[in-house]
Replication restart protein PriA (Uliginosibacterium paludis), 724 residues
Amino acid sequence: MSRIVRIALPLPRPLLFDYLVPAGMNPAVGLCARLPFGRGEKTGVVVAVDPPDAPPADKLKPVLELLEDIPPLPSEWLALTAFAARYYQHPLGEVISAALPPGLRRAVKLPRDDDPWLATTPAGRLALGEAKKITRALAAVLAVQSAGARRRSQLLGDLDGDASGAIREARAKGWLEIVARAGEREPIGALTLNTAQQAAVHAVNDAAGSFRPFLLFGVTGSGKTEVYLHQIAHTLAQGRQALMLVPEIGLTPQLMERVASRFPGANLVSLHSGMADGARSLGFVQALKGEADIVLGTRLSVFVPLPRLGLIVVDEEHDASFKQQDGLRYSARDLAVWRANAEKLPIVLGSATPSLETWQHAEAGRYTRLDLPLPAVADKPPSLRRIDTRRVKLDHGLSPGLIEGIRTRLARGEQSLVFLNRRGYAPVIACPQCNWVSACPHCSANMVFHAADRALRCHHCGHEGRVPHICPGCGNQDLHAFGRGTQRLEERLGEHFPEARIERVDRDAVRTPAQWEAVRARIEAREIDILVGTQMLAKGHDFPMLTLVGIVGADAGLYAADFRAPERLFQQLMQVAGRSGRGELPGEVLVQTEFPEHPLYEHLARRDYPGFAKRELAERKMAGFPPWGYHAVLRAEAPELDAAIAWLNTARAVAESLQSPVMLYDVVPMRLVRRARLERAQLVLESDNRPGLQATLAALMPLLYALKCPRELRWHIDVDPGEL
Ligand code: ADP
Ligand code: ZN
Ligand code: ZN
């Protein structure tokens, strides 16, 4: 009897396809398969074997290849992807494809398993110490050094671009050597936990084998990571695997090193989207085969199959990078909770400033809150002072008070950090005579001025242009850069403090973990006096000589149109404020604001997250925003706004005909209407309960797929959107 497989293929429609299995192949659910499709080939995953409702075999095309050398994806994995498809209203084949590493997605052969462990040699350490400049080969040495030892494939993923040449060079120079396994270096011993940490570790350890969500609530430095490490140790000791998700900027060499050196014999796999395809596939398959003990990665790691999974940790669970913003628009944190429930595991969500959704779960008793107060010795919160910018004259955005503060620190040999809340503060080129601005030709946004290469760049579509010599509007030769970008601030500070060593830290200046590592080393070595930067600086690093944090441009987050803006602002400011006074010296935070009495700043001054959350949750409740209301956004984009709006209005009429209790907003143009030559509009659906929204969406989607859709129009649905 001929056998048939049902396959999920990456196509923009929720369809499954049946294929014939040629003799000699052994079909199984979860295997990847290469198939003929249309005039080409595609790769998909077997979701059923011999489905009872399959059409007659003579109507089907045969499978080209089953990738039997990779174990089939386990049923828990298929259940997770099926849930994501259902919940986010996304075709299963595309979900599966997004959940697979790019290599498996295309069914390319895995890289040869010539994947040695590399460690730095004494010569390599010497070269690092003496280097004036970090070359690519030295960057490889640095990355290995900070991890203790690294598999070649993983190291390739740590570095930018194709680093195989750099690794070869480092080996030829005798800086890197092949070692037997990771466990060649000294394990760094576990610390003796304080009482609160012990309680947190015990609570989670006791929950092993059952679904229990925990919120680990503690500021940076309160010892959360130490708690995770103890919980992971307990998990590994039981022969289980641990999955730890961190935000994009949280996957630092220091964290890798800390985890790797704590578990020298364990197979640690790290995964993030910047890794080379081969390395990602290898890590994924090692996890699938049960060879990985710990998976440490960014949001996409939530989809790593782990047959012995015992614990999930989500660090900085409030971080916006856990939500994917295109394609399958999933929340890795929410999927992690679902996965913990489905696989009966404890899950630990850690944060100093939890998302209001998570906070409310804890308040309602659905999550167990574990508090980590700062140990008494370290509890010297920085004093927070508000500078009322309505009463002082600003010099390019800098108040006299802030400039004075920096001057004092310089005189004392201490460090300062000027933090710029970037929202709405990127510099643009404009003409003061005719009001011409450097608008992007493809978007309803202005292009941002980059002083380093005197270029204009659109941050939404990537369009690039040169700065004009004369105003295109009126011929005026005196064009100005407006807005307080980090580059502008850096320049201005340089004029004030010509003797100071100033360093800018933003996504333009610091692009890679290795670059960030180098900056960090220079801060620690006190080679930098003033840091200027954006949220990159916020993540927990201890700089004992940093005693002043100045915050510029924060008000933009108070009254933004986006309902999550205050939450994000508070989270960000708590994090940057925590950068100062981490050592022996007391810290000070200066917030420049036009709204010094705003409650958000009051709560911030007292480091009172619970108070802030209470107030913000009350406001959200009145407005019907999450966690009291549930949303999905249907977005459409087309060359003409009218076409997008017309399609959405049709969709709205279809939704109305369902007569569900879900509320339909009016179709409106999006705030950033034009992006990359396309004009965009949206329709918000709102419900006071999640199942209600889900039921409506499930009924609506097939009708939307059936709608006539102009060829140049694209639409998608975003469930639990990051913003409305
Ligand atoms: P978080 O993840 O909350 O920022 P960490 O776990 O990184 O906190 O701890 C902050 C610092 O305190 C680290 O340098 C860590 O080594 C140290 N630390 C944490 N727990 C303890 C402990 N129980 N005893 C001594 N030092 C600790
Ligand atoms: Zn653009
Ligand atoms: Zn002009």
Notes: The first helix runs from residue 75 to 87.
